[in-house]
């Protein structure tokens, strides 16, 4: 006789366990999955009998909707900071109620620049508040004396608590608020350590809300990680209106400010600054910083013109080619993209007939500038070829053009602007890609179709 089974049925074993069903084919499962096991559709599996999302009833509005032509744009007009290079990057200046995130490595000069901006704003009669969580008010005062940034309407406070910071804002009612830095301020209402994701999100969200409600221009100083990205949650960059990157080598006085995000202006501009003991000053004409001063041409050097936003900068590329007995020759770069330099070396050897497989190659820029655009390819190729042949290039020559894998020289943007800057600095001759028609006065342009033709044009007779 067969024994009766005491095993519960499938339906009773499930009890109140929910069931999920595919909206496309009706396939069912006991747990949620992102992809249907029957029809392989994504995002179609939903719980059977799930409570629908609650609807939100219409509520009162803060301000009525207006026709776009009737919207007042004066509130969004930028106001100059008094620092010309910073205004260039911002698109004219700071906008009331805007929130700016300035990020950079330690010691690059972020606090010094913002202290000078706050002092200039205060000198015009507008109250400015600098809240520092990394230094004491006395330390900031000493720096202000050193750079000449003392003003009667400039207020300093040393706070790391968000509530206390808001109390200072309530008491001072500033038109400009500088928080140095957002990673050092914490809120007692949320858990987590200062600088953590939860704390940074809470602090930034509160400061942004205060800035919008009161019309306070707020500048947040941000830390960066070892790979150069902004520390904290990625949502921080989405919440703010402007994201500025402060760059610079600590062994060089040159500092660059780039706009990564800007709701009120362009993102292709760059500001140049000189960091000294007396403070940080703008460099409206920084081209001379990236050139070597010498009486006679030196082998392995070539001048090019790069575009930083809409600003042309004349820069020098240097290359040293030294024989080696190593099985794998060394390749080292500074200020240049190493992978792109390696590609140019391969093109030189294969298409230009320059033997480099038995030599170490070192390529660098002058003055700490970084050349990342392809327009500097031709200058790198000529510098390496001149270093390999130990022959200097003709004096007063600039080279502009992108080098392809087939050895061709391709056109680049803004050639006229580049050549005009070269002519202004006294470079009468230029090597340019084919099809360059609009050449400014004062420059003799020679079109070179490929690398081999470029090498032949600079080879001494």
Give your account of this protein's structure.
This protein is globular. The chain has helices at residues 10-14, 84-90, 110-123, 137-147, 162-172, 197-214, 235-239, 338-351, 377-389, 415-424, 451-458; strands at residues 20-22, 28-29, 45-47, 99-104, 128-132, 154-158, 176-180, 217-222, 242-247, 254-262, 270-276, 279-282, 301-308, 311-323, 331-334, 359-365, 397-399, 402-403, 409-410, 429-432, 444-447. It has three domains: 18-47; 75-284, P-loop containing nucleotide triphosphate hydrolases (Rossmann fold); 289-458, Ribosomal Protein S5, domain 2. The longest helix is centred in the middle third of the chain and has 18 residues, at 197-214. The chain is α/β, with parallel strands linked by helices and 461 residues long. 36% of the residues are buried.
Keywords:
single chain; 461 residues; alpha/beta; Rossmann fold; Ribosomal Protein S5, domain 2; 3 domains; nine-stranded mixed β-sheet; four-stranded mixed β-sheet; 11 helices; 21 strands; disordered N terminus
Mind sketching the topology for me?
Elements: H1 10-14, E1 20-22, E2 28-29, E3 45-47, H2 84-90, E4 99-104, H3 110-123, E5 128-132, H4 137-147, E6 154-158, H5 162-172, E7 176-180, H6 197-214, E8 217-222, H7 235-239, E9 242-247, E10 254-262, E11 270-276, E12 279-282, E13 301-308, E14 311-323, E15 331-334, H8 338-351, E16 359-365, H9 377-389, E17 397-399, E18 402-403, E19 409-410, H10 415-424, E20 429-432, E21 444-447, H11 451-458
Parallel strand pairs: 4-8, 4-9, 5-6, 5-7, 7-8, 15-16, 17-20, 20-21
Antiparallel strand pairs: 1-2, 1-3, 9-10, 10-11, 11-12, 13-14, 14-16, 18-19
Helix pairs in contact: 8-9
């Amino acid at each position: 006789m067969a024994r009766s089974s005491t095993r519960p049925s499938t339906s009773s074993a499930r009890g109140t366990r929910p069931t999920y069903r595919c909206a496309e084919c009706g396939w069912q499962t006991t747990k949620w999955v992102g992809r249907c096991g029957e029809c392989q559709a994504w995002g179609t599996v939903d719980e059977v009998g799930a409570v629908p999302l609650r609807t939100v009833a219409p509520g009162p509005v803060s301000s009525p909707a207006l026709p776009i032509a009737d919207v007042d744009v004066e509130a969004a007009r930028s106001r100059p900071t008094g620092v010309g290079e910073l205004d260039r990057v911002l698109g004219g200046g700071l906008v009331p109620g805007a929130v700016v995130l300035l990020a950079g490595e330690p010691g690059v000069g972020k606090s010094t620049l913002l202290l000078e901006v706050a002092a200039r704003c205060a000198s015009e009669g507008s109250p400015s508040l600098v809240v520092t969580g990394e230094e004491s008010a006395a330390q900031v005062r000493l720096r202000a004396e050193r750079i000449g940034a003392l003003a009667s309407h400039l207020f300093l406070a040393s706070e790391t608590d968000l509530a206390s910071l808001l109390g200072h804002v309530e008491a001072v009612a500033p038109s400009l608020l500088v928080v140095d830095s957002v990673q050092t301020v914490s809120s007692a209402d949320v858990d987590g350590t200062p600088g953590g994701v939860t704390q940074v999100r809470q602090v930034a969200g509160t400061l942004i809300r205060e800035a919008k409600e009161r019309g306070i221009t707020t500048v947040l100083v941000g830390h960066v990680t070892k790979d150069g990205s902004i520390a904290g949650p990625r949502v921080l960059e989405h919440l703010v209106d402007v994201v500025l990157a402060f760059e610079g080598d600590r062994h060089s006085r040159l500092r660059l400010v780039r706009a990564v995000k800007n709701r009120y202006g362009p993102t292709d501009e760059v500001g140049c600054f000189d960091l000294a003991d007396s403070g940080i000053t703008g460099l409206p004409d920084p081209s001379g910083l990236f050139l070597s001063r010498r009486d006679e041409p030196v082998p392995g050097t070539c001048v090019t013109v790069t575009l930083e936003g809409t600003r042309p900068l004349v820069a020098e590329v240097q290359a040293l080619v030294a024989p080696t007995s190593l099985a794998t020759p060394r390749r080292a770069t500074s200020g240049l993209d190493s992978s792109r330099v390696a590609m140019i070396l391969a093109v030189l050897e294969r298409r230009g007939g320059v033997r480099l497989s038995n030599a170490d190659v070192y390529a660098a820029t002058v003055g700490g500038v970084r050349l990342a655009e392809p327009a500097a390819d031709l200058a790198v190729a000529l510098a390496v070829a001149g270093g390999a042949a130990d022959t200097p290039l003709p004096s007063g020559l600039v080279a502009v053009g992108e080098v392809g894998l087939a050895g061709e020289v391709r056109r680049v943007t803004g050639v006229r602007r580049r050549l005009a800057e070269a002519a202004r600095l006294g470079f009468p001759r230029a090597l340019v890609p084919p099809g360059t028609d609009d050449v400014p006065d004062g420059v003799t342009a020679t079109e070179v179709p490929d690398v081999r033709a470029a090498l032949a044009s600079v080879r001494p007779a």
